[in-house]
Amino acid sequence: MQYILNAPTSIKTEIMLPASKSISNRALVINALSGGKEHPENLSKCDDTDVMVAALRDMPYEINIKAAGTAMRFTSAFLSVGEGEHVITGTERMKHRPISVLVDALRRLGGSIEYMEEEGFPPLRIRGREMEGGHLDIAGNVSSQYISALLMIGPVMKKGLTLHLTGKIISRPYIDLTLCTMQEFGAEAEWLDGATIEVKPSPYKAVPFFIENDWSASSYWYEMLALLKKNANGYEESEVRLPGLMDSSRQGDSAIRYIFSMLGVKTQFAEKVPLKPTTVTLKAQKCLLPRFDFDFINQPDLAQTVVVATALMGIPFRFSGLQTLRIKETDRIAALKTEMAKLGYVLDDSVEGVLSWDGTRCEPMENPAIDTYEDHRMAMAFAPACIMFPGLRINNPEVVSKSYPLYWDNLKAAGFGITTAE
Fold it and tell me: Cis peptide leading into 98, omega within 30 of 0?
């Protein structure tokens, strides 16, 4: 399938974003470990969360997690402390996403896991058992999902878990989000120092839990406002209202509001009540930024959105902390280079973990079609580029179902023209 996109001259709309996938997946695992009979409220309605709901509900012998990387890691840890034997598998891409760091850690803590095909990659055969736990050293520069998976099962291990993170720690806000969610369910888990986390062997308690909406999903609306040009009525005509977001959110991607404040988008909260969702209003304003350098070590999932927006605004940039982008749904750095070149922008990835643009342009393709690489964020980050490239085509647009199933419906409601290519 292919969509052809055309943008309105301005946007004035209210959009109900999906619930946070990151919080939903954590809350599902922790709720299951607590023995909770009711799901958390406002669960994300997306592919990644759906596969976790099905797995935890049905617990079949073979669990197909499809393309959900978070679900693969979290469910593998969950099965390790559960009962019975299970096989966990996924798509062909999932079978080429490394998982040895997590498997090695689970084995050291007493887990029983074996690789069924290629060493270091899914599918896995897991025999659930009571795990010993204890002290574990793990590199801090691995995916935070490995660390979160281990932390969440800490309370049900005999000795709990003391996790020491060595070297540079990446995606720390995601670790803090995990700890915060665990604490909501009664876990005794906290940082002992800047590199050590202690989780005591104290069982979870089943409690009602409400999931806030997703800050990462808001990033595409920030991008749209940043790209809309100044018109005769100034910068105030375009406005997007986003209910259900928290000012004090533990979501690391809530940093999007600070990033785009430098790119000409103002964020206003209807009210600021601690730990209560409210409505956020986005408005465009003048951007005078001559260059943008930023370290995405704590917010790697925002990188695609900001790369597209910044380049299309004509602002040279150097973005670091992107090393984990190589092992996401696709190699996101390579994908960004290829697809931005179709629009006439030459990106540089000669330094590992860094993507930069010095203003170098190339001849854009006529009638460019953006490939999405089975990656939801490629589709959503490039869709707003139709503001600058009318008639932009997006291949395989259905990939957004992974995290934001109503994305295209929301764009239509905001005035975007979306037609299916013949």
Answer: no
More confident residue, 279 or 274: 279
Residue 233 has pLDDT above 70, yes or no: no
Give the confidence band of 288 by pLDDT, cuts at 50, 70, 90.
Answer: confident
Give the per-residue pLDDT at 329.
83
pLDDT at 58: 94
Q: What is the pLDDT of residue 385?
A: 97
Q: Left if phi > 0, otherwise alpha if psi is -120 to 50, otherwise beta: which for 288?
A: alpha
Q: Considering the candidates 50, 247, 301, 371, report the single residue annotated as catalytic.
A: 301
Residue 272 has pLDDT above 80, yes or no: no
Long-range CB contacts for residues 271-278, cutoff 8 Å, separation at least 24: 272/247, 272/248, 274/248, 275/246, 275/248, 276/246, 277/212, 277/213, 277/243, 277/244, 277/245, 277/246, 278/243, 278/245, 278/246, 278/247
Q: Residue 287 is encoded by which pair of tokens?
A: 């951007």
Report the helix count and the strand count for the chain, using DSSP H and E: 12, 19
Q: 216: which 2 tokens?
A: 């990462």
**DSSP secondary structure string, 45-84?**
-SHHHHHHHHHHHH--SEEE-TT-HHHHHHHHHHHHTSSS
Collapsing DSSP states into helix, strand and coil, what is residue 239?
A: strand
Cα–Cα dist 193/56, whole Å: 34
Would residue 176 show up in a list of annotated catalytic residues for this protein?
no
Q: How far apart are CA 39 and CA 22, in angstroms?
A: 15
In angstroms, rounded to a whole number, what is the distance separating the alpha carbons of residues 326 and 323?
Answer: 6
Token pair 């000409």 in the structure block, residue: 264
pLDDT higher than 90, residue 7: yes
Q: Which of these, 51, 2, 91, 149, lies nearest to 402 by C-alpha position?
A: 51
Contact 20, 46 (CB under 8 A): no
